[in-house]
Amino acid sequence: MTTQTILVTGGAGFIGSNFIHMLAEERGDWRVINFDALTYAGNLENLRAVEGWDGYQFVKGDVSSEADVMAALKACGDGPLSVVHMAAESHVDRSILSGLPFVQANVVGTQVLLDACRARGVERFVHVSTDEVYGSLGEEGFFTETTPLAPNSPYSASKASSDLFVRAAFHTHGFPACITRCSNNYGPYQFPEKLIPLVIANAQEDKDLPIYGDGMYVRDWLYVRDHCEAILAVLEKGVPGEVYNIGGNNEVPNLELVKEVLAILGKPESLITFVADRPGHDRRYAIDAGKMRDELGWEPRYEFSKALPLTVEWYTSQVEWLQQVRTGAYRDYYDTQYASRTNAP
Ligand code: NAD
Ligand code: DAU
Question: Considering the chain, what percentage of its residues have pLDDT values greater than 90?
Answer without folding.
Answer: 94
